[in-house]
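One chain shown below:
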Amino acid sequence: MWRFGKSIKLDSTIMKYYFIIMLYEGIDKLFGTVYVAHMGIRGLTSFQIGQVLAISSIALSIFDYPTGNIADKYGRKRSLVLGFFIWSIGLLVFFQASNLFTFILSILLWAVGVSLISGTPGAWFVDEITKEGRSHLKAKVFPNANAISLIFGAIVALLSSLLAIGRPDFPLLVAGIMGLGTSIILIFILNENYGDRAISFRKALVRNTIDIFKSTTMRLILIRSMTGRIAFQTFVMIWQLYMVKELKLSTAYLGFTMAIFLVVLAVGNSLAGILLKRFEGVKVSIMGQGLIAIGSITIASHTSIVAFYIGACLIELGLGIDMSASSVWVHDLIPSERRASYISAIGAAGSLFGFIIPLVSGYIADQIGFRYNWLLALIGSIITITLLIKIGTAIRTVREGVQNVEKSK
């Protein structure tokens, strides 16, 4: 039996999860390497690009939460198969798009597909290994899966640079075909699992919404998901435009740069796995956000290629640490039968707030200058650190209460 590191057997369930995450990451990076530049090449202004990204965030916020409930009730396998299929259609339409309307149409299809996938692989995996009596493995598998998938994404990003030579939109075509192929493969390799199937979809949606907002900790997590989008979406929106328009670098460098970012992101995920053995999950997320703040200051302070790469790598390292840590500690707070629903709710909250960020970032880039986008990212990371401190305090308070009850018995 293969082993990853010293203690994780690469059995069927784990390998299937790795497969899903790697394919998702590969498709996403084929798209992510060129999509902003693709819209610019097709004639959209920075503000119009911001409009497309804002609409994608609004669409994700609308679709993400109910699709999580759909996955719990009707099956996580079905949700993944349908999600990859619709996502592939959106990517192929994006590949052909040449005006604002068509880009908006494609991004809506993209949002539906991504919403059906969002949170579902993790929910499927956690419940599968829980049935097998191995729920403790998630603290090791999630960071490892993220790191492996990001390395794979880095390789794909490098390949996309080659694909883009002479045809910058070609990676989008490959991404669409890969999405379609993944949808077909998942039909044959996954077991189906569910959340709470006894309750109707409408009642589950209402019940979960009420329960989420009744919980102080979940409310803080939702707000944290929103503020965490400030730095993340500012970076996603700006880095390609910053390289091409501010630093005057060729679009040929985008794939190479994306590959560097993904390797650093993978290092961040692996580092999170090490840090989680020594620190509480929320504290590890705070460390990640601290690196994002330092990276944002670095880029804002100096308009140079060196400052950009140093600062951007610090941001990516911080994002990797926070992403991996939060994927572990958030699952510890969510009941199994509602896992996909709650994870989708967290994603939906981030998307609902996140639609503002591309509009603001695009306006700042066009009217004031790119440097102020990095200051916006800094502010977002500082706010998120403050919320994470509050979440950590709330979690410890609940834990101490449970321990006191157990001692009194």
Observations:
- The first helix runs from residue 12 to 41.
- Residues 8-192+202-408 form a domain with the Growth Hormone; Chain: A; fold (CATH 1.20.1250.20).
- Strands lie at 3-4, 8-9.
- The mean pLDDT is 85.
